[in-house]
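User: two proteins, same treatment. go.

Assistant:
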Amino acid sequence: MFIPSASSKKTLAPAQTPPVVEIVDASNRSLGALPLDEVLRQKLFCRMVLVLLYDQHGKLYLVKFPEWKEGGVLAPCRWDIGLVTYVRPGESTKDGALRRMRENLGTRAGRLHLVRTWPVSWDAEKVFVSLYRLYTHSSSLQYMHQKNETLAVDQEELEGLVIHCPDLLTNRVISLDKQAQLFPIL
């Protein structure tokens, strides 16, 4: 019988527990909570928050994550919305947005403006999306830039990416651009 010595044992990194998110019905009424990976596997509705980040010049900040932060890898190394999260049990969409702001910007960093909430199906997700806009100073965005690669684009630059390089963007960014949701109509 082989008994491994203490020096031959490999230390395994603790398995990351998927976040628990609130699940909802097709009318956006709360039903309970499940781990995110199970929600995605079963294609259940849940709530998602997107926060569009703009600098003082009105440029939209996109982020390139090396891997998707919550759950599986959906679109590695593509430009995506700056702040994305799922709503946790007992959390409002605004609370979720504020939580993600603290995590990614290190601060509250400005005033949130709710744009709209609507049901969407993206890739494997069936979600009710609450879209917020946040205008903030570049100092707040520098904190996020230290953690991830960022790109600031104006409306014309984004259109060029959508037309000529759509494979560099997530489906979420392309979809929101087609719906004219990424830049406010002035």
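Protein 2:
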Amino acid sequence: MLQSYTENNTKLFTENNTTEMVEQQKLMKRYARLVQVGVQDFISVELNYQDEARMLLSKRTNSTGLIIMISFLVVSLGSLLFAILLSTQIGTSLNKIVHFAQKISEGNLIVKGLEVKTNDEVAVLADTFHNMAQHLGLVISSIVGASKISMIQLL
């Protein structure tokens, strides 16, 4: 189109047809304005689209950050609750074992009620203390029995 415009202007210029040249120039100015308006409209629409996309992305980013923070808080609170429950359970079991060991150290080898309701090292420790108390009782009974026999033999 531009080449035909140039050829057309050259032809009009050589023919000295100024009125038609003015008309051609006006037509070209109208075309230029139409193109300019079209480009400006396109840029405006594109900028509006970019703004909408930026706002949507910002909203999604904010909601994603909120979801991450809430998830972190839930996991943290769950972990804290689990740690408190676990430490309470272990502490209770160890307190029972300590109480049992104190009774044994006081000479009471017939202590009952050492029941730990876990399946871990604390339960093994409780069973070991319970077995130790029974064996100590048997050993002391054997010693007392042997001592009575030797006293009777001495008499």
